[in-house]
Design brief:
single chain; four-stranded antiparallel β-sheet; eight-stranded mixed β-sheet; Ribosomal Protein S5, domain 2; 10 helices; binds adenosine-5'-diphosphate; binds 4-diphosphocytidyl-2-C-methyl-D-erythritol 2-phosphate
Length: 301
């Protein structure tokens, strides 16, 4: 006899935006995007287990992550169960490997992981279409965390289309001690760019460079429309960015709404020596490969 599954662990990756094109705010307040997402090898592991009520915990305490109904993982679990008209609940445990409030979509990764884990825990057989739609209702970045790889994001970021990516690269992820609020960065973008277009263009040259696997070109084409707003709110990032460029990576980029900064390397040894150099100078940094898979089951128990 097959025993029922009582515990499922799903791993979900961080994301970066190789290109983040932002338009002027829509009537609903969200900004239209043309973004190229890439999933990178920093992960949160989310475990769900049958329980009488919904709850969430962390394997190690981390400031800034709510442990009540505001946690996006609980909202994801409830949303999927409600979609199926069921009255079920789970204990959610999150092992965080993705920096919090770093512009790497850790909360979105947890939501995506929870959707998949809850679906598998109770064998709900949710269609991909429904999973992606519910993900999009939870947050603009959540559908991409399900998909992984490299993808074009449009709408407010929730409409995702996989694109071919023959590059295989290493990101040096340079962390910041303080987070940046995504809504605050978008609000400041509106001040700096009052005439932003309604429909930001798809970065075709970058799409082509990725399809060919030309890392040099990808590095030269990295772009983030939120950089002027983020560096206004965090002027210290300007000096950090300059220091990173001196090390000669293939590219430097602000991750999403920041404040994490990224350096692109084709060669892992060069990436490792940049990390050694920066660590010696007091920076907190780590290496992540890209692109990697989206949310996937790692354990059934
Ligand atoms: C900037 C980006 C780039 O991928 O990533 P992060 O830096 O957060 O990782 C995203 O647009 C963040 O997406 P996400 O964090 O999922 O945002 P949501 O939960 O949907 O929205 C949070 C808030 O961000 C603003 N927002 C978000 C997306 C968007 N296209 N326009 C916006 O103006 C709104 O103020 C919204 O209330
Ligand atoms: N499971 C979660 N993990 C991290 N943050 C969460 C989570 N649920 C809700 N949040 C809230 O979402 C905000 C954004 O967090 P995060 O996703 O880490 O950053 P970013 O949007 O910069 O990528 C945090 O301020 C936090 O209050």
């Amino acid at each position: 006899m097959v025993e029922p599954t009582h515990r499922v662990t799903v791993r979900a990756p961080a994301k970066i935006n190789l290109h983040l094109g932002v338009g002027g705010p829509r009537a609903d307040g969200f900004h239209p995007l043309a973004t190229i997402y890439q999933a990178v090898g920093l992960y949160d592991d989310v475990t769900v287990a049958d329980a009488p009520d919904w709850s969430v915990g962390l394997t190690a305490p981390i400031d800034g992550v709510p442990l009540d109904d505001d946690n996006i993982a609980i909202r994801a679990g409830r949303a999927l169960v409600a979609h199926h008209g069921l009255d079920l609940a789970a204990r959610i445990t999150i092992a965080k490997g993705i920096p919090v409030m770093g512009g790497m979509a850790g909360g979105s990764a947890d939501a995506a992981a929870t959707l998949l884990a809850v679906d598998r825990l109770w064998d709900l057989q949710t269609s991909d279409e429904d999973l992606l739609r519910i993900a999009g209702e939870l947050g603009s970045d959540v559908p991409f965390a399900l998909l992984g790889g490299t993808a074009l994001g449009t709408g407010r970021g929730e409409v995702v289309t996989p694109i071919p990516d023959r590059s295989s690269v290493w990101w040096v992820v340079v962390l910041s001690d303080e987070g940046l609020s995504t809504p605050a960065v978008y609000r400041h973008f509106d001040v700096l760019a009052p005439d932003a277009v309604a429909d930001p263009p798809v970065p075709q040259a970058l799409v082509d460079a990725l399809a060919e696997g030309y890392t040099d070109e990808v590095g030269a084409l990295l772009h983030n429309d939120l950089w002027p707003a983020a560096r206004d709110l965090r002027p210290d990032l300007v000096d950090v960015e300059a220091q990173l460029r001196i090390l000669g990576p293939d590219g430097v980029l602000l991750s999403g709404s920041g404040p994490t900064l990224l350096m692109l390397y084709e060669d892992v040894e060069e990436a490792r020596s940049a990390v050694a150099d920066l660590t010696e100078r007091g920076f907190r940094c780590t290496i992540a490969p890209g692109p990697v898979a989206g949310a996937h089951v790692v354990t059934y128990a």
